[in-house]
Design goal:
single chain, 264 residues, alpha+beta, four-stranded antiparallel sheet, binds zinc ion
C-alpha cells in the first residue's frame, strides 16, 4: 500500500482545494493527494498540453510576424528573490518557443532512450522547430507514464532570461561547466515545466487574460492578486486594490530592499 502524497504541482495542482482561515478568508490552496507524482487532473492537463503544444508554438510564432518587435527584459526573469512565478509572464516570444523546443526534445530523447525507441537526436536537430516540437510532443503524449516514471536526469540549462540559470526553481541547477549550466530534473518536474511553458504560450497569445499571482496583496495580505495581461493591471479580488504592473514590480523591489536592510 503506497501512502498518498501531495500532487507535485503544488499550488498549481488542477485538483487543488482551497484553505480557509479565520473569518472564511481563503488563505491558500492545498494540492490533491495522489498515489502518483501527479494527480489525475494534472495528468489530464499534461495530456491536453502535449496535444496542443505544436499548435501553440505556431500561434506564438505567428504573434511575432506582424511586428517582429522582440522586447528583451534586462532583469532576471525569476525576479531575483523568486517572488514571481518561475516562468515570467511577459517575456519575449522567441524565447518561449526556443525553451519549449529545448525541454520537449530533451525529454523526448530521455523517454525514447528509456524505452529503446528509435529517436535520432541528430536528425531531430536538423529539422524545423515546429517539426521537432510536434514529434517530441507526440512521443511524450503517447508515453506519458514513462515520462512521469523517469528519475533524475542532468541536462543543459536553458531559460527565458538572458542567463541559463534564471527561473529554474530552487535546487535545480546542479553544476557549471565553463559558460554552461546544467540542471537536474526528474520526469514529473519536467512535466511541470512543460505545463508552465504551455501556460506561457497561452498568456503570450492572449488565450489566458488573467493570471493569479503568488505574492500576497500589500493592503489586505490575501494571496488574491490577479494580473490582467491585456490591461497590464494587477487587481486584488479581496480588497479591490489596483496597481499597474510597473507599479507592482517597483513595490516588490522596494519591499525586498527594505527586508534586506532590516536583516542586515
Ligand atoms: Zn495535481
Ligand atoms: Zn487586497
Amino acid at each position: 500500500v503506497s501512502a498518498a502524497q501531495e500532487c507535485r504541482r503544488g499550488q498549481d495542482c488542477t485538483e487543488r482545494i482551497p484553505v480557509y482561515g479565520p473569518g472564511g478568508v481563503r488563505t491558500g490552496w492545498t494540492p490533491a493527494h495522489t498515489d502518483d507524482a501527479l494527480c489525475g487532473g494534472c495528468r489530464r492537463t499534461l495530456a491536453y498540453a502535449l496535444d496542443e503544444l505544436p499548435r501553440q508554438v505556431l500561434a506564438v510564432e505567428a504573434e511575432q510576424l506582424p511586428k517582429l518587435a522582440i522586447i528583451y527584459r534586462q532583469d532576471d526573469c525569476s525576479g531575483g528573490g523568486e517572488i514571481h512565478a518561475p516562468i515570467p509572464l511577459d517575456t519575449h516570444l522567441d524565447a518561449i518557443v526556443r525553451l519549449i523546443d529545448h525541454e520537449v526534445c530533451t525529454w523526448a530523447d530521455f523517454v525514447a532512450d528509456a524505452m529503446s525507441l528509435p529517436w535520432s537526436a541528430m536528425a531531430t536537430r536538423m529539422s524545423r522547430t515546429i517539426d521537432r516540437v510536434t514529434r517530441g510532443s507526440i512521443l511524450l503524449r503517447r508515453n506519458t507514464s514513462w515520462l512521469l516514471a523517469l528519475g533524475p536526469h542532468e541536462y543543459r540549462a536553458r531559460s527565458l532570461g538572458e542567463n541559463p540559470w534564471s527561473g529554474q526553481g530552487r535546487g535545480v541547477v546542479v553544476r557549471r561547466d565553463g559558460t554552461d549550466f546544467w540542471v537536474e530534473r526528474d520526469g514529473p518536474a519536467a512535466a511541470i515545466r512543460i505545463l508552465e511553458l504551455f501556460r506561457a504560450t497561452q498568456e503570450a497569445t492572449g488565450q489566458i487574460a488573467t493570471t493569479r499571482l503568488r505574492t500576497p496583496c500589500r493592503h489586505c495580505h490575501c494571496r488574491t492578486l490577479n494580473r490582467d495581461h491585456t490591461r497590464n493591471l494587477i487587481t486584488c479580488s479581496t480588497c479591490g486594490n489596483q496597481a499597474s504592473v510597473e507599479r507592482h514590480e517597483q513595490d516588490e523591489r522596494n519591499l525586498i530592499a527594505t527586508a534586506g536592510r532590516v536583516a542586515s
